[in-house]
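Fill in residues.
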């Protein structure tokens, strides 16, 4: 939905202890992929726990435009009757993927090796984001892309009529680019190879194997070498989407900074390509217990018991950890503001091309809340004020970015004075029950 509606100002204030169980919704990355892979399988894929956020709903709509039958059968329960690899039909209209970089990039990959043409657009945030990082490798398959300057949406992709397989070393650590190349490789004959120097989230690889593709991952001196054999027949699956560790980050971080809090967050992924925030918080002195480790929906998960942690210390976050916590730096920078000493986040320039320039958005908002910040192109440094020490009292700009909005609302729960956001409506894209869930724990969050 590119019509990013009316701005919804929101505000949070210093709250009493957060208590209770925070059941966060389904993983956004796995939800997109379950719809897309389901659309490329022949037969009926059944999905439970699907995230019904706007980003994922926009991907469902796009899959219908390509000919898949996508049906909501209950809360979080969906079926997808797929058209098979190479079976996409040409959409009759422009595809509007709203706010979602994952939707745009994965779907471009999926159609790039089928001889059809599709035009993509999105909201004002997505129309600023670089698509060259996917259209460059897709052109190696034989696809052509016509977009705005700087490789921006709206953009038309003309799929390759005679695709060739590709060997591609990722120039940026990006699961979206990796996945776009693998999805394109599905309809190319022979072996498509993607090489990633730094491991990024591996949901596409795991799920493709589940759907019956022939895919292997080899660890070499160059990094992970992922080899996919093209033109398989994908088998429909029952997909149980696990909870989203990136959404769990918000109640977890809120409980760490709100005095007296003690909450349980069940089923948080411990997948090594997603758990960087949790490792970092523990290193800072966060009181988090990892209970009942088990598998859910093919992912290693644990229940997190999280208590207020008044003695957290800033640390230097290892830059090589960035891909496993890339979406969590905004809320980590809030926790860092309530820790003692400085937290140094290096190697984070990818944050500048997310739903907003997240280094800039967090730096400006935290400064307005009275926190000392240093930054450069690739670095964010937060000078902590200690537990309860953040002055707050500002209204922060969210730049159509859900995670910026939720991060500042978390900040306001422990700051001395309330913290507002100019627009909380983007929260709908990834965590539609955020407000209700947080209020249920005792968080004082209000609209207006
Ligand atoms: C995602 C990959 C990451 C992440 C995004 C979801 C995915 O983006 O920030 O929220 O589902 O593949 P990049 O691939 O751009 O790092």
């Amino acid at each position: 939905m590119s019509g990013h509606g009316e701005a919804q100002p929101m505000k949070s204030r210093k709250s009493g202890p957060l208590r209770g169980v925070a059941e966060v919704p389904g993983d956004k990355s796995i939800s997109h992929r379950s719809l897309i892979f389901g659309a490329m399988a022949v037969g009926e894929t059944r999905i439970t726990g699907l995230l019904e956020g706007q980003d994922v709903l926009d991907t469902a709509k796009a899959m219908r435009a390509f000919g898949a039958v996508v049906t909501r059968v209950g809360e979080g329960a969906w079926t997808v009757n797929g058209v098979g690899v190479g079976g996409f039909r040409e959409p009759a209209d422009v595809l509007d993927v709203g706010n979602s970089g994952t939707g745009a990039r994965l779907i471009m990959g999926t159609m790039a090796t089928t001889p059809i043409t599709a035009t993509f657009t999105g909201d004002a945030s997505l129309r600023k984001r670089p698509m060259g990082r996917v259209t460059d490798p897709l052109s190696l398959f034989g696809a052509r892309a016509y977009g705005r300057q700087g490789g921006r949406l709206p953009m038309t992709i003309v799929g390759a009529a005679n695709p060739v397989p590709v060997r591609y070393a990722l120039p940026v650590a990006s699961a979206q680019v990796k996945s776009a190349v693998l999805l394109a490789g599905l309809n190319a004959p022979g072996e498509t190879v993607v090489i990633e120097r730094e491991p990024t989230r591996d949901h596409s690889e795991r799920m493709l194997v589940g759907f019956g593709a022939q895919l292997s991952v080899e660890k070499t001196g160059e990094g992970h070498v992922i080899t996919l054999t093209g033109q398989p027949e994908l088998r429909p699956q029952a997909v149980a989407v696990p909870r989203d560790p990136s959404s769990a980050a918000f109640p977890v971080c809120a409980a760490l900074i709100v005095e007296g809090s003690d909450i349980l967050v069940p089923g948080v992924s411990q997948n090594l390509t997603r758990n960087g925030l949790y490792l970092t918080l523990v290193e800072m002195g966060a009181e988090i217990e990892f209970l009942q480790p088990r598998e859910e929906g093919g992912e290693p998960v644990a229940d997190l018991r999280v208590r207020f942690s008044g003695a957290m210390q800033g640390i230097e976050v290892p830059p090589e950890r960035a891909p496993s916590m890339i979406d969590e730096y905004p809320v980590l920078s809030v926790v860092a503001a309530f820790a003692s000493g400085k937290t140094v986040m290096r190697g984070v320039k990818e944050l500048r091309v997310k739903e907003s320039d997240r280094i800039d958005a967090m730096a400006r908002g935290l400064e307005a809340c009275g926190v000392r910040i240093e930054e450069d192109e690739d670095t964010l440094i937060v000078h902590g004020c200690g537990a309860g020490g953040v002055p707050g009292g500002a209204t922060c700009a969210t730049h159509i970015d859900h995670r910026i909005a939720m991060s500042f609302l978390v900040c306001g729960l422990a700051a001395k004075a309330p913290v507002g956001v100019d627009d909380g409506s983007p929260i709908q894209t990834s965590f539609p029950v955020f407000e209700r869930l947080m209020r249920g724990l005792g968080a004082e969050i209000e609209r207006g």
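The mean pLDDT is 97.
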